């Protein structure tokens, strides 16, 4: 079975990586789809996001990363995906994701698996990471070292905690 886990990943967080890892334990292959979200103001280009996501999931077997350009259900069909995986943090996520799951099922027949976020990173979002990093907050516990470095480059050298290049 092949699953697609999509998002804007601006930036990818350890919570996202946790969902990818757990989804991979349920299915044979996971495709991470890096999608454009016109409702969000991103800091990383699509190429940067794809690169950061690839780095974050490089050690998880049978996981690939691709750009989603268009409808998610069309992307799923094009990649032979059987299911869509979505992570849930709060009740509001459930309400939204349930609506999307019904729409996607009606449009394509593709089922959606909803995975609750893990306890450790369940309250963290990419927008929170962007905001904290923009004010010099140490977000290194919530993102990979490569993302920490990318944020450091975006917001200025030395504004984030941790050591540059330190592998955690």
Could you explain how this protein is built, in words?
The protein is built from six helices and five strands. The protein is of the alpha/beta class and 168 residues long. The protein has a single domain (1-153), classed as 3-Layer(aba) Sandwich (Rossmann fold). A five-stranded parallel beta sheet has the order 3-2-1-4-5, with helices on both faces. It is globular and about 45 Å long. Mean pLDDT is 91; it is low at 163-168.
Describe the sheet with the most strands: 5 strands, parallel
For the residues shown, what is the average pLDDT? 91
CATH class category name: Alpha Beta
Q: How many whole angstroms does the radius of gyration measure?
A: 16 Å
* Overall helicity: 40-55%
Q: Name the poorly predicted regions.
A: 163-168
Look at the structure and name the CATH superfamily: HUPs
Number of domains: 1
Sequence of strands across the biggest β-sheet: 3-2-1-4-5
- Spatial gap, N to C terminus: 32 Å
Overall geometric form? globular
User: What is the tally of helical segments?
Assistant: 6
How many distinct beta strands?
5
Order of helices and strands: EHEHEHEHEHH
């Amino acid at each position: 079975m092949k699953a697609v886990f999509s998002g804007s990943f601006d930036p990818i967080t350890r919570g996202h990586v946790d969902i990818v890892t757990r989804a991979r334990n349920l299915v044979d292959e996971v495709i991470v789809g890096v999608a454009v979200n016109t409702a969000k103001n991103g800091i990383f280009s699509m190429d940067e996001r794809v690169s950061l996501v690839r780095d974050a999931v490089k050690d998880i077997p049978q996981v690939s990363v691709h750009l989603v350009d268009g409808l998610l259900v069309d992307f799923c069909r094009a990649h032979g995906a059987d299911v869509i995986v979505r992570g849930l943090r709060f009740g509001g996520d459930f309400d939204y994701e349930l609506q999307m799951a019904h729409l996607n099922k009606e449009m394509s027949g593709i089922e959606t698996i909803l995975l609750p976020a893990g306890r450790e990173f369940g309250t963290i979002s990419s927008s929170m990471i962007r905001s904290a990093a923009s004010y010099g907050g140490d977000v290194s516990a919530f993102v990979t070292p490569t993302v920490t470095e990318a944020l450091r480059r975006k917001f200025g050298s030395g504004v984030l905690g941790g050591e540059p290049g330190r592998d955690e």
